[in-house]
Design goal:
By secondary structure, the protein is mostly helical. It has seven helices and no strands. Helix content is 64%, strand content 0%.
């Protein structure tokens, strides 16, 4: 059941807030941040808007995304082999960020699509079978460092 503070991912602003919250967690994560920061040297100013466009396209059907998910991750995997623990953490953080603020059809679609993307990347790009753990170990988010406005 949806709580009064939760609503579904139905606007571009919702997608923006989800993507920003998720990548804030990535930037603070001791396992994933070195992959994104040190190895991939992600330019967040460029990357975040592209990911917002991607998720708006997936969940809302909004045109505007043009990218190659597989090619980007193949390049990253060539720089540093990604393993099951990376997939597990990425997925757990995504689910946690969705579940903290959203509930409904699109929130469920966001989690399902993320699972499908990670499953496909693991198999076709990273070279192993991956499925989300039945009970993913969800990290605890520290509200004192993560309460900053999303915009």
């Amino acid at each position: 059941m949806q709580s009064p503070t939760e609503h579904d991912l139905v606007t571009g602003a919702d997608i923006h807030d989800l993507v920003v919250a998720f990548y804030r967690e990535i930037m603070l994560d001791e396992l994933l941040e070195p992959i994104f920061g040190d190895i991939a040297e992600v330019d967040w100013v460029e990357h975040i808007p592209r990911l917002i466009d991607y998720w708006r396209w997936i969940l809302l059907g909004t045109p505007g995304y043009s990218g190659t998910v597989t090619k980007t991750h193949r390049h990253l995997h060539g720089l540093h082999a990604l393993e099951g623990e990376h997939c597990d953490r990425w997925f757990a953080l995504w689910v946690l960020c969705v579940d903290q603020r959203w509930a409904g059809r699109n929130a469920e679609r966001a989690k399902h699509h993320a699972e499908m993307v990670m499953t496909g990347l693991a198999r076709r790009v990273f070279g192993f079978a991956w499925a989300p753990p039945s009970s993913p170990p969800l990290p605890q988010l520290d509200a004192t460092t993560r309460d900053a406005p999303l915009r």
